[in-house]
């Protein structure tokens, strides 16, 4: 389970950063930055992928009550223009900026940090070992999932309420029969192929 080991090595506020939505064919990429209050840490923080939807929603609500949270979004247009890696880095920058305060250290899930002015360390598998990054993973996923449920109502037929824009069978079939929407990432191969066949 995640713990305070990485946070304890640093002085001042420590933010955890993680993203959701690098792999889907549609929708934005969302990053979150979270500074936990050590006197008010919700029980059960873990990598968002290890949590049930209900548990994740409960923890997200608790984090909004007792942690400092910033969210950053990179749009589909930015993903197609910059590529998904750099759009993810941009979303992370925006998430940390949204905290509205200076950090003593930023712990970033993965193997690289954005090119920014913040002191930061990349932590491979950080969402499973750092409480702050685990918290960020929950906020990022919960935020993006809600956006895709809303998008499903505007663009029915692709199954986004359940598949969240990933390349599930129902989504790929709809891409072939209905074609791409404005929320599809045209730089991603299955979407680009669907555009060619229209």
TrEMBL record:
It comes from the Bacteria. It is found in: Cytoplasm. Its EC number is 3.1.26.4. InterPro entries: RNase_HII, RNase_HII/HIII, RNase_HII/HIII_dom, RNaseH-like_sf, RNaseH_sf. Keywords: Cytoplasm, Endonuclease, Hydrolase, Manganese, Metal-binding, Nuclease. Its main location: cytoplasm. It is an enzyme of class 3 (hydrolase). Coiled coil: none annotated. The keyword Manganese applies. Its cofactor is Mg(2+); Mn(2+). Residues 12-198 form the RNase H type-2 domain. It catalyses: Endonucleolytic cleavage to 5'-phosphomonoester. It holds the Pfam family RNase_HII. SUPFAM superfamilies: Ribonuclease H-like. A divalent metal cation binds at residues 18-19, 109. Manganese or magnesium. Binds 1 divalent metal ion per monomer in the absence of substrate. May bind a second metal ion after substrate binding. Belongs to the RNase HII family. Endonuclease that specifically degrades the RNA of RNA-DNA hybrids. This is Ribonuclease HII. It comes from Sphingomonas hankookensis. The lineage of its organism: Bacteria, Pseudomonadati, Pseudomonadota, Alphaproteobacteria, Sphingomonadales.
């Amino acid at each position: 389970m995640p713990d305070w080991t990485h946070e304890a090595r640093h002085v001042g506020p420590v933010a955890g950063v993680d993203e959701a939505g690098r792999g889907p064919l549609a929708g934005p990429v969302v990053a979150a930055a979270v500074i936990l209050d050590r006197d008010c840490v919700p029980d059960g923080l873990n990598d968002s992928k290890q949590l049930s939807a209900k548990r994740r929603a409960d923890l997200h609500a608790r984090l909004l009550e007792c942690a400092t949270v910033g969210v950053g979004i990179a749009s589909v247009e930015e993903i197609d223009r910059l590529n998904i890696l750099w759009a993810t880095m941009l979303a992370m920058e925006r998430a940390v900026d949204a905290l509205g305060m200076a950090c003593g250290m930023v712990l970033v899930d993965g193997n690289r940090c954005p090119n920014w002015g913040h002191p930061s360390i990349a932590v491979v598998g950080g969402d499973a070992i750092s409480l702050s990054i685990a918290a960020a993973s929950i906020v990022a996923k919960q935020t993006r999932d809600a956006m895709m449920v809303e998008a499903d109502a505007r663009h029915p037929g692709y199954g986004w309420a359940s598949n969240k824009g990933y390349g599930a069978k129902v989504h790929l079939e709809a891409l072939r029969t209905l074609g791409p929407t404005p929320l599809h990432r045209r730089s991603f191969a299955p979407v680009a192929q669907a555009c060619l066949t229209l």
